[in-house]
Amino acid sequence: MKLYEALAQEIEDMVAQQVLRPGERLPSVRQQHARRGASPSTVFQAYYLLEARGVIESRPRSGYYVAPGRAPTAAPEPEPSRPDGAPRSVDVSELVFGVLEAARSRRVVPFGSAFPSPELFPLPKLARALASSTRRLDPWSTVADLGAGNGELRRQIALRYQLDGAAVAADDIVVTNGALEALNLCLQAVARPGDTVLVESPSFYAALQALERLELKAVEVATHPREGMELGALAAALERHRPAACWLMTSFQNPLGSLMAPDKKQALVGLLAAHGVPLIEDDVYGELYFGARRPALAKRYDAPGAQGLVLHCSSFSKCLAPGFRVGWAAPGRYARAVERLKLTTSLAAAMPSQLALAEYLGQGGYDRHLRQLRAALMGQQAQMLAALAEHFPPGTRVTHPEGGYFLWVVLPEGADALALHAAALERGISIAPGPMFSAKREFRNCLRLNYGHPWSTEHAAAIATLGELIRG
Amino acid sequence: MKLYEALAQEIEDMVAQQVLRPGERLPSVRQQHARRGASPSTVFQAYYLLEARGVIESRPRSGYYVAPGRAPTAAPEPEPSRPDGAPRSVDVSELVFGVLEAARSRRVVPFGSAFPSPELFPLPKLARALASSTRRLDPWSTVADLGAGNGELRRQIALRYQLDGAAVAADDIVVTNGALEALNLCLQAVARPGDTVLVESPSFYAALQALERLELKAVEVATHPREGMELGALAAALERHRPAACWLMTSFQNPLGSLMAPDKKQALVGLLAAHGVPLIEDDVYGELYFGARRPALAKRYDAPGAQGLVLHCSSFSKCLAPGFRVGWAAPGRYARAVERLKLTTSLAAAMPSQLALAEYLGQGGYDRHLRQLRAALMGQQAQMLAALAEHFPPGTRVTHPEGGYFLWVVLPEGADALALHAAALERGISIAPGPMFSAKREFRNCLRLNYGHPWSTEHAAAIATLGELIRG
């Protein structure tokens, strides 16, 4: 247990024992530092964690307070998945399109949405970056930057890789039309129709749809809701299926929110390299961590000895500029192949979006924005967890992810998330039912909830309504 | 022969007979109208046509003059192609990538480029539209417009279809990441790996690359350099191959510049409908006509009785905003399928680009810009044709397209365009060698030249250099 986790546990115990009572003010960071000798960052992390758990809450310009009302009785964590491991053609699109279409109206409470609230993004600053960068647009850049993308933007992305300990040259980055295109291009670079791809269980539906469209087979691998894909199950699947690739989200997986520990990521890269199997690492949520620092990238362990087999994909769509449609791939040894696929499928990403993001990143406000965004998401997670604890029936299990903006909820056996989806929509609430996340349409009693929107009384009421619908 | 064509012929004859001498001023439009009774639009069209042919030239604020120097001795037109009609797997990518890469430097004379000069586009006005539309950006539009694209932009595009006589509802338009993505999505909507697709001969290399990537087979159909694909050959190929689709450019085909007459387009749509074969109509050059009005769309003849089998694709990349990467498809009965493919391959086109174009189109300056662009391209075509007539060896054949910005040059037998490409590049000149445009790598003695850039002494010298290299 880390220092901040120990401190958080200590305070949570004090709350449970009523040493600290609801509404009471916690010692300030300065006090914890001066008296106890804890470093400010340890205290901040402990308080953030407690806020995420709903134990305490922050009040602007005042400090941290024990959350009012009841002590949180957090629901227990779900069990790891146990898929049967058979290769399957994928056919989830009809279900997915139906759910997404339903969730698109802005009058619906967006628990089923795949995006955080656009209100959490620095839109005015991005608009200024768009205007100024386009005014200075070199007409010839539209030709020179075809294929791999704008040079300055790729340089800015390479700088962030360097800070994250992964050596990626700007020339080996391909800017794409969002991470979804990056995923599609990477899959095409390493797999042919009929091939098998290993995925998590549950898995992000858009990846399943990409497999479906490319006529690839999915093998779902057992996945722990907090720790990610189980390497023992992965090793067995590698032996059994000789897959063309493994696709997974190493940090804050969608829908589970699971986070692989750094040594597990290293072992993952080593295991796949030993089998010569490329890893497509989808890392779009990696910046949305609630801990002290950004989770390691599996790409970091893709040393030259590991053969350049990690194709790292990410984007700005979840953490900065959703409508700009700018993502990228750092495809290792497949960089040229992915660049050529980009040229033949859509030529280039939109230049105004690329130039504006390059300018925005060069101005240096990105990390400040990310800190604000993470703090907002942590607080919203705490609010939703507390509401679930209050309104969902006993026997419900819920993840407590350390980042991202999704909760995975396992309802008691017999619950039907598809029926709940339909009933909730009639009450103006969207959810993402579990079968969207499985080639076999499993997880019938599960749902994914989005806490990426500022909490409101409407949201609280919607959780209560869902609870009523579940209880029937 | 139309009135303006007759008038143009009359004047061209006068020049050939030295009735009008080089440098002499032509009667003004007002004079032609007042004395001869010709309508101003007829006179303008005749003069435009003569300018395109290099017979006359315009001088700003002064009028039209007979071109100086020699009377143009236009090279004869190439013969129709006679491909063998066998289905072929496509493998042109290495060649194409090599040529495109070489042409990318701005220090190279861009005769091999696929784009007109970005200097011909209204970049400052687009930058202002970007800035103002993004300032007013509704954060929720980034979610609401996923998939098919921004509603206002689709409405503006639908308005233009209406003016062109094609009934396309805004809801049936899918905005894409350029016309290349539109083509890819349409191909995926109608064909499966292993299927056969009919294409022109020669054919646009990016379409051949798309077939290659999607593991489709190409059957090249005989194509007339001025009138487009030959319907007799098409009918035979339909009987013989039972193709999944026919892909072609009905107006100013790349690389030939061929233009199908309206009744031929109507017959084309009827013929394909009779076989139940979808037509993917790539129309990215349709706005770049030199005649009196926009060429008809084949889509126009896709009446409800014709089953909605025409998938019309276009973009703003060739005529307004190349780097914005905004194209679209109007896929008829396949609209929903294409929309879903868009959702699963790249989610949406970039929102800033879409909003800026919607605003620009709403302001009403697009048609004025297009008129200026067409006039520039016509003049540049005339300059290049004249230079070719002067410097290329006897026996050279050249197209005289009525729109677009490509010439197709057929060199005397035995000439080697690939060797010419390599030699020209060493002299700082790019060309697009003929084998890029054929699954069978035919057209070894052909090249495509781009006249989409303002003519300069450097360009004139480059044509002379090419002539020297060809003569050896």
UniProtKB/TrEMBL annotation, chains A, B:
The keyword Lipid biosynthesis does not apply. SMART domains: HTH_GNTR. GO terms for molecular function: DNA binding; DNA-binding transcription factor activity; pyridoxal phosphate binding; transaminase activity. PROSITE patterns: HTH_GNTR (PS50949). Signal peptide: none annotated. Pfam families: Aminotran_1_2, GntR. Keywords: Aminotransferase, DNA-binding, Pyridoxal phosphate, Transcription, Transcription regulation, Transferase. It comes from the Bacteria. Residues 67-88 are annotated as: Disordered. Residues 1-69 form the HTH gntR-type domain. In the C-terminal section; belongs to the class-I pyridoxal-phosphate-dependent aminotransferase family. This is Aminotransferase class I/II-fold pyridoxal phosphate-dependent enzyme. It comes from Pseudoduganella aquatica.
